[in-house]
């Protein structure tokens, strides 16, 4: 059937269901990278109890929501910008900085390059390699930087490789960039899934460097992509003055504000971390012994695999799985990867058993 499915996003279930004549409810979305526990029970109750809140404008300053976010991630309110999901904040970063040249560490999320081109910024890719397990050498990397680059984008942990830089490694990069006048955008969409967030997150660096902005959202960890809530943290005064929620009133909908209680749902947060950590270890162990694939050790809630059989492609493995109602990610369309890579996220234990056993049937 060719590679037509390469354009499918992990959330394109309706398209997939129609193409493969499947009941949409029967498809298990291993390509979505969303928390398998679903939304926070506290958020669910708050949304149900406040269904009529849509009749009124949300608080212009989002004081309650910002308080919850800051208590959750250790940010300061006056360093916080709310956005309509991470995509909105990526766009906002380009709109504010207007960088003539952007460097993106890849292979990674295609939205960075797409948005850069939309704003007329030339893109310079720094592609990590399979031979290095897609890990960045922070001592070698600065040699690729120069003062013609105005924005550096790092996804940490990175999608789709699952690799993560430590806070100290990130500090070296941000510090070097500050000397060259390079602004650094760190997308931490998946950071809450790592074993120890404090050793990976760059939020603690915000007070030290004003050439840094850290992005997060509730789409993946809190399983709420439809609420469209993202937040950015920076100490750059110019950036903050231009993009404060006072200057852009009501850009977050009422329900997103109401659902902010999810940041206080400690039981849900701890259950998620425990589940993902356990399943990550089990899945990696189960697949690592197979000699016909290369499994990249993940830091987050998904795993990247390279197919080593000469004749086998990601398209074929995708087809095999989707016909069983299992939707993995064919990574052919990721620049820097190609037709030999697949990715899937960790679900509940019984679902992980199914995808692992199914993959072992074909790889």
User: Largest sheet, order of strands side by side?
Assistant: 2-8-7-6-5-3-4
The portion of residues assigned to helices is 25-40%
DSSP E strands, number = 13
* Biggest sheet descriptor: 7 strands, mixed
Structural class: alpha/beta
Radius of gyration: 20 Å
N- to C-terminal distance: 19 Å
SSE succession: HEHHEHEHEEHEEEHHHEEHEEEH
Number of helices: 11
Percentage of residues in DSSP E strands? 15-25%
Average pLDDT, all residues = 94
Q: List unreliable stretches of 5+ residues.
A: 1-7
Overall outline: globular
Brief description of this entry?
By secondary structure, the chain is of the alpha/beta class. 33% of the residues lie in helices and 16% in strands. The protein has a seven-stranded mixed β-sheet with strand order 2-8-7-6-5-3-4, with helices on both faces. It has a four-stranded antiparallel β-sheet with strand order 9-10-13-12, covered by helices on one side. A two-stranded parallel sheet has the order 1-11.
């Amino acid at each position: 059937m060719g590679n037509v499915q390469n354009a499918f996003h992990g959330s394109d279930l309706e398209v997939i269901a129609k193409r493969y004549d499947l009941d949409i409810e029967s498809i298990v979305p291993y390509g979505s990278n969303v928390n398998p526990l679903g939304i926070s029970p506290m958020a669910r109750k708050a949304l149900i109890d406040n269904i009529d809140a849509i009749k009124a404008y949300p608080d212009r300053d989002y004081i309650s929501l910002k308080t919850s976010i800051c208590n959750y991630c250790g940010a300061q309110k006056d360093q916080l910008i709310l956005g309509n999901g991470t995509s909105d904040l990526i766009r906002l970063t380009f709109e504010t900085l207007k960088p003539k040249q952007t460097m993106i560490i890849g292979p990674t999320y295609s939205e960075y390059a797409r948005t850069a081109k939309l704003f007329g910024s030339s893109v310079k890719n720094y592609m990590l390699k399979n031979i290095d397990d897609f890990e960045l050498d922070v001592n070698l990397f600065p040699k690729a930087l120069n003062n013609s680059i105005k924005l550096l984008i790092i996804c940490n942990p990175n999608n789709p490789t699952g690799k993560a830089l430590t806070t100290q490694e990130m500090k070296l990069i941000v510090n070097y960039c500050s000397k060259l006048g390079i602004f650094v955008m760190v997308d931490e969409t998946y950071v809450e899934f790592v074993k120890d967030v404090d050793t990976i997150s760059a939020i603690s660096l915000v007070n030290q460097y004003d050439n840094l902005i850290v992005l997060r959202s509730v789409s993946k960890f809190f399983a709420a992509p439809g609420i469209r809530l993202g937040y950015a943290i920076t100490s750059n005064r110019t950036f903050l003055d231009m993009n404060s929620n006072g200057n852009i009133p009501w850009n977050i909908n009422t329900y997103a504000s109401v659902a902010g209680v999810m940041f206080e749902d400690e039981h849900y947060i701890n259950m998620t971390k425990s589940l993902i950590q356990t399943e990550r270890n089990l899945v990696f162990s189960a697949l690592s012994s197979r000699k016909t694939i290369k499994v990249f050790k993940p830091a987050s809630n998904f795993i990247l695999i390279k197919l080593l059989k000469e004749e086998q492609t990601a398209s074929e493995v995708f087809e095999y799985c989707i016909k069983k109602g299992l939707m993995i990610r064919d990574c052919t369309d990721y620049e820097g990867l190609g037709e030999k890579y697949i990715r899937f996220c960790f679900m509940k234990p019984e679902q992980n058993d199914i995808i692992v056993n199914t993959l072992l049937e074909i790889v």
